[in-house]
Design brief:
- This is DNA primase.
- This protein is 54% helix and 8% strand.
- It is of the alpha+beta class.
- It has four domains: 90 residues, Alpha-Beta Complex (DNA Primase, Chain A); 136 residues, DNA primase DNAg catalytic core, N-terminal domain, CATH 3.90.980; 177 residues, 3-Layer(aba) Sandwich (Dna Topoisomerase Vi A Subunit, Chain: A, domain 2); 180 residues.
- The strands form four sheets. The protein has a five-stranded mixed sheet with strand order 12-11-13-14-15, with helices on both faces. Strands 1-2-3-4 form a four-stranded antiparallel sheet. A four-stranded antiparallel sheet has the order 5-8-9-10, with helices on one face.
- Helix 20 runs antiparallel to helix 25.
- The radius of gyration is 31 Å and the shape is globular.
- The relative contact order is 0.04.
Length: 651
C-alpha cells in the first residue's frame, strides 16, 4: 500500500529511536549521554564486546563503526526483527499512537485471511500437543525419550503427535467451528478424490511446529513413526502462509540468540537443531528438507554475517556443501561469508552430542573451514596433476569458478588464497628442470627462483614495496586532509568508510575521525576535533603528522581553504581507487596468461604498468577524466593480452 505524503516524516518525528533499539542492546552508560540522546552500545548486528554502535536520537539515526550498519527506526526493525517495510511501519505507528492510512480493501482482505489461517494453525498445534500426552502417543514419547528429550524440551519446541486415523484433526477443528476452506488452505487436510470427506495430511507422525520470524505457526514437519513409511519426514504443503524455500526452522529464537553474540549454526534437520539448542547452542536453524535456497541464504546472512554450516561427513554431506558453495559465490559481499563444519562420518549433531558431549561439539566448531578450502578440495581431491595439460585444466576450472564472484575485492582475495594453495600443491614437488639460457644449472626443489629479466626489473610491477609505499603515502594524505578539515568528512563519509586502509594505524585513525565527526559540537570546532582525535588515536596522529610529505601539503598547511581541501581529498580518493582497481586488472591478466608469458610479453605488460602509473600521476580534473583514463588503460591491456595469446597459439 502507498503512504500519504508526510506520513513517514511525522512517524519519524514521533519515534524515539533509542527506545526501539534499547530492546535489543544494553547501553554503555560510560559513553552515553541520555540527556542529549547520544547513546552507545555493543552492536546488535555483529559480535563485539566494545560499544561501537551509536544512536543519535536527535537525528533519528544509528551507525556502527565496526560493521557500518546504519539507518533509522524503520531500517532497524527490518534488519533486527526481519520485518517487511509495511510491517515495520505498522509497529512504529502503533507505538507512536498514529492511525495507519486506510488499506486497499483487497490487501486488507488478504491480511485478514492470513490471520485466520494462523489461528487455525495454532489450534492444530494445541491438538497435536494434547495427543502426545494420550495413550496413543506413548510410542512417540518413548521415541523422544530415547533421543534424550525431556518433557521440558518437548514443551519448549511444542512437539506433538498426529495419531493414526484419517480424520482426527479434521473432526477436532470442525467441532471448533472452523470452516472447511480454512482447514484445507492451511494445508492440514487434503480433499478426497473418492467423494468422501477430506482427510488429515499428517497421520502417525511426531509433529514439529514451524514458526516464522514473528513466532506465528506457518507449517508443520512430521516424522513418521512407521519405519516403512515412504517419507521419513513430511512438511506441510506450500500455502498462503508457508513458502518452504523462504523459511527456516527455529528462525526467531536463533535470531535472538545470534543478536546476543552466539554464532549461528545451520544444521540439516529439526532433530539436529533441537539437539544443538538443548546442548546450549541456541543460535541454530535448519532448512526444511531441501538444499538451502538463495532466499534462505539471504535470511541466514541477516541473522549472522558468517554462519557455520554443519554437514554430515558422508558423500551426501560433502555434495550438499558443494551445491551451497556454487549458490553462495555470486552472492558474497564484504564481511558476509560461510564457514563449514564437517561432522565425523556416520554422525549427525545429535549423535555427536550424545556420544561425546557438548564440549566435543564446541571443539568441532573451532575447526570450521572457510569456503575457499572446500572449493579447493572439490577441484583437487582424488585427482592427479602430473602433466601440464592437467594443471592447465585445474587453472581453467578455478578461473571460471572465481569469475562467479561478483565483488571484485572478494574475488581478488579468493585468487590470492587459491594461488597459495596451488603453490603448496605444485611448488614443493616440482621435478628438477634445466633452466633456459647458457651456463644455468638445473633448478632443484630448494633452488631460489630465477632473478627477474633486466626489462622486467625496471617495471613498477616488479619493484619491491613500490605500490605499498604509494598506497601508504596516499592513505596518509587522505587522513591528514580530514584531520585538518573536519567539514570534508560529511561529504566523503561513505568513501572513507569503504576504502581499505592497509596500515593498521591508518585504519584506527580513520575510525576515530568518523567517530568524532558524528558529534556535531566537536565537528564544528577544528581545535576540539583535533583534541578528540588526539585523545583516541594520539600515537597514530603524531606519526601521521610527522610525515614530511604531509607537513608540506597545501591542503594541510592552509587550514581555511576548504575548497582546496575538498578538491585534493576527492583527487586522492579517486586515484587510490583507480590504482588499486587497475592493479587488480593486471593481476587478473597475469593469471590468465600463466604459462604463456615470454620476455616479449613481459616487456609489453611492463609498458601497461608504466601507462598505469602515468595515468595516476596526471592531474585529475574531474571524475570523468579518471574514468576515461582507466577505460583506455583497460582497453590497452586487453589488446596486449589478446595479441600475446594469439601469437602464442600461432606458434
Amino acid at each position: 500500500m502507498s503512504l500519504p505524503p508526510g506520513f513517514l516524516d511525522e512517524l519519524r518525528n514521533r519515534t524515539t529511536l533509542s527506545r526501539i533499539v534499547g530492546r535489543k542492546v544494553t547501553w554503555d552508560n560510560r559513553k552515553s549521554n541520555q540527556a542529549k540522546g547520544d547513546l552507545w552500545a555493543p552492536c546488535p548486528f555483529h559480535q563485539e564486546k566494545t560499544a561501537s554502535f551509536h544512536v543519535d536520537d536527535r537525528k533519528g539515526y544509528y551507525y556502527c563503526f565496526g560493521c557500518h550498519a546504519k539507518g533509522d527506526a524503520v531500517s532497524f526493525l527490518r534488519e533486527a526483527e526481519n520485518m517487511g517495510f509495511m510491517e515495520a511501519i505498522e509497529v512504529l505507528a502503533r507505538e507512536a499512537g498514529m492511525q495507519m492510512p486506510a488499506r486497499d480493501p483487497e490487501a486488507a482482505q488478504k491480511a485478514d485471511r492470513r490471520s485466520q489461517l494462523a489461528e487455525v494453525m495454532e489450534a492444530a498445534v494445541q491438538h497435536y500437543r494434547m495427543q502426545l500426552r494420550t495413550g496413543a502417543g506413548a510410542p512417540a514419547r518413548d521415541y523422544l525419550a530415547k533421543r534424550k528429550l525431556s518433557e521440558a524440551d518437548r514443551d519448549r519446541f511444542e512437539i506433538g503427535f498426529a495419531p493414526e486415523g484419517w480424520q482426527g484433526l479434521w473432526d477436532h477443528l470442525k467441532a471448533k467451528g472452523i470452516a472447511d476452506d480454512l482447514i484445507l488452505a492451511a494445508g492440514l487436510a487434503k480433499p478426497s478424490t473418492k467423494g468422501k470427506a477430506p482427510y488429515d495430511t499428517f497421520r502417525n507422525r511426531i509433529m514439529f511446529p514451524i514458526r516464522d520470524a514473528r513466532g506465528r505457526c506457518i507449517a508443520f514437519g512430521g516424522r513418521a513413526m512407521d519405519p516403512n513409511d515412504n517419507a521419513k519426514y513430511l512438511n506441510s504443503p506450500e500455502t498462503e502462509l508457508f513458502d518452504k524455500g523462504r523459511s527456516l526452522y527455529n528462525h526467531g529464537p536463533a535470531r535472538e540468540a545470534a543478536g546476543k553474540g552466539e554464532t549461528l549454526i545451520v544444521a540439516e534437520g529439526y532433530m539436529d537443531v533441537i539437539a544443538l539448542v538443548t546442548a546450549g547452542f541456541h543460535a541454530a536453524v535448519a532448512p526444511l528438507g531441501t538444499a538451502i535456497t538463495e532466499d534462505q541464504l539471504r535470511l541466514i546472512w541477516r541473522i549472522h554475517p558468517e554462519p557455520l554450516v554443519m554437514l554430515d561427513g558422508d558423500t551426501a554431506g560433502i555434495r550438499a556443501a558443494m551445491r551451497l558453495i556454487d549458490l553462495a559465490l555470486p552472492l558474497l559481499e564484504a564481511g558476509y561469508g560461510l564457514r563449514f563444519v564437517i561432522l565425523p562420518e556416520g554422525m549427525d549433531p545429535d549423535d555427536m552430542i550424545r556420544a561425546r558431549g557438548a564440549q566435543a561439539m564446541r571443539d568441532l566448531l573451532e575447526t570450521a573451514q572457510p569456503m575457499v578450502n572446500l572449493l579447493w578440495r572439490r577441484e583437487t581431491e582424488g585427482k592427479t596433476f602430473d602433466s601440464p595439460e592437467r594443471k592447465a585444466g585445474l587453472d581453467k576450472t578455478l578461473r571460471e569458478t572465481l569469475r562467479k564472484i561478483a565483488d571484485p575485492s572478494i574475488r581478488a582475495h579468493y585468487g590470492e588464497e587459491i594461488k597459495q594453495l596451488r603453490w603448496e600443491l605444485f611448488g614443493s614437488n616440482r621435478k628438477p628442470q634445466p633452466q633456459r639460457g647458457s651456463g644455468m644449472a638445473p633448478r632443484g626443489r630448494s633452488q631460489a627462483p630465477l632473478a627477474p629479466l633486466p626489462v622486467t626489473r625496471t617495471s613498477l610491477l616488479a619493484t619491491p614495496g613500490g605500490e605499498a609505499v604509494e598506497d601508504h603515502l596516499r592513505e596518509a594524505m587522505i587522513l591528514a586532509i580530514c584531520v585538518t578539515h573536519p567539514a570534508c568528512l560529511a561529504r566523503f563519509e561513505s568513501q572513507l568508510e569503504t576504502v581499505d586502509m592497509l596500515d593498521p594505524g591508518h585504519d584506527r585513525l580513520r575510525n576515530a575521525l568518523l567517530l568524532a565527526s558524528h558529534d556535531p559540537e566537536v565537528a564544528a570546532d577544528p581545535d576540539a576535533f583535533r583534541n578528540r582525535i588526539a585523545a583516541s588515536a594520539g600515537a597514530d596522529l603524531e606519526k601521521l603528522l610527522a610525515l614530511a610529505h604531509v607537513r608540506i601539503a597545501p591542503p594541510v598547511r592552509n587550514f581555511e581553504d576548504t575548497d582546496l581541501a575538498t578538491m585534493c581529498l576527492a583527487e586522492e580518493l579517486a586515484k587510490l581507487e583507480a590504482r588499486r582497481g587497475m592493479t587488480a586488472e593486471i593481476e587478473e591478466a597475469m593469471e590468465d596468461l600463466e604459462g604463456l608469458a615470454d620476455e616479449g610479453l613481459t616487456w609489453r605488460l611492463s609498458q601497461a604498468a608504466a601507462a598505469r602509473h602515468r595515468a595516476e600521476r596526471s592531474r585529475l580534473d574531474d571524475d570523468s577524466d579518471m574514468g576515461e583514463d582507466r577505460a583506455a588503460l583497460s582497453a590497452q591491456l586487453q589488446s596486449l593480452i589478446d595479441r600475446a595469446v594469439w601469437e602464442k597459439k600461432r606458434h
